[in-house]
Amino acid sequence: MNRLILTVVILMWSTLSVAAINVVATTSSMGMLTRTVGGEFVKVTELALPDRDIHTLQVRPSMLQALRQAQLVVAIGAELEQGWLPPAIEGSANAKILPNSLGYFEAAAQVPLIDAQGSANRSDGDVHPLGNPHVQLDPVRMAEIAYALAERLAKLDVTHSANFRANAASFKSAVNSQLAHWQQLAANNKGVMLYHKDAKYLLARFNIPLLATVEPLAGIPPTASHILSLVRQFKGKKGVILHTVYQGNAGIAQLASQLGWQHIALPLEPANNSHQQAYFALIEQWLTAAANNK
Q1: What span, in angstroms and rounded, lies between the C-alpha atoms of 102 and 109?
Q2: 211-216: long-range contacts (C-beta < 8 A, 24 or more apart)?
Q3: Are 166 and 220 in a shared domain?
Q4: Ranges of residues in the chain whose predicted pLDDT is under 50
Q5: Are the CB atoms for 38 and 153 separated by under 8 Å?
Q6: What is the span of the domain harbouring residue 237?
Q7: Does residue 196 lie within any of the structural domains?
């Protein structure tokens, strides 16, 4: 009998020791980073498809189910998911993942943000007072976030803390090995017009000028007068308009046609359930598209 009990205890301990941390990531970029850092010791569920606008998701029953079972939520943060994530967490009734708890992690809180305003003035559009939240297109910032995420995972699973830290270091090394190539892609770029400032970190990282945004203000669709003002400002100059796959406003095609520029729709996120190479391919895709203005 004692031997049987001992066997059961050992089996239970073995199962617990290899149990993966149940992580819910709000986006596929956050899922990618968690998978990269956590490796075999995390199980990741992603809430948003990569072709969806993360600002405006609707809470679904499947989200609540995933959040109920989560030990850690990995969000982009800086109020990007403000419209739906807080009510989803509240609806899950899972106290372990409440904001400011060990089970809640915001990527944007780990790195300096651009365009921080301190307070929101709605006359300026759909602004983020804490700063531009779209850090996922800056691979250098993502590498720094990886280190912070490794430390958070280490607190949830001390046994594998060395693995998490090594994986974060490996990710940073991989990013560093790609930087010279990415910088070459971005060299001598004349500038890019974005629909929204969602790729501003990428442009800033690789010294690509942001010429303007198709939106007159963040979150406000372009008016005919704004399109006309952009045509007057940039007619005869070189450039390209980059926008996400869900920013299908007709003003983009109209503006591109009048300027004689290309307009290119790109994913803002890597594919669902992807890994490091898919993220690197996303950075390459944006930089290659930006080079169409030369």
Answers
A1: 14
A2: 211/239, 214/241, 214/243, 214/249, 214/251, 214/252, 214/255, 215/125, 216/125
A3: no
A4: 4, 6-17
A5: yes
A6: 180-293
A7: yes
State the number of CA atoms in the 13 A half-sphere of 45 facing the CB.
17
pLDDT at 15: 44
**Assigned domain for 278 exists:** yes
- Single residue among 143, 178, 213 that ends a domain in this structure: 178
> Which residues are within 8 A (CB) of 252 and not within 5 positions of it... i.e. 6 or more apart?
195, 214, 241, 243, 263
Find residue 46's DSSP bridge partners: 25
E strands, the chain, are 21-25, 42-46, 72-75, 104-106, 192-194, 210-213, 240-244, 262-266
User: pLDDT tens-digit profile of 38-63?
Assistant: 999 999 999 999 999 999 999 999 99
pTM across the whole model: 0.91
Q: What is the pLDDT of residue 119?
A: 62
Cα–Cα distances in angstroms (integers) from residue 148 to residues 106, 127, 173, 205, 285, in the given order: 10, 26, 16, 20, 27
Classify residue 19: in a domain, yes or no: yes
Dihedral sign for Cα atoms in the order 39, 26, 91, 65: negative
Distance in angstroms (rounded) separating the CA atoms of residues 22 and 4: 30
Which tokens hold the place of 1? 């009998």
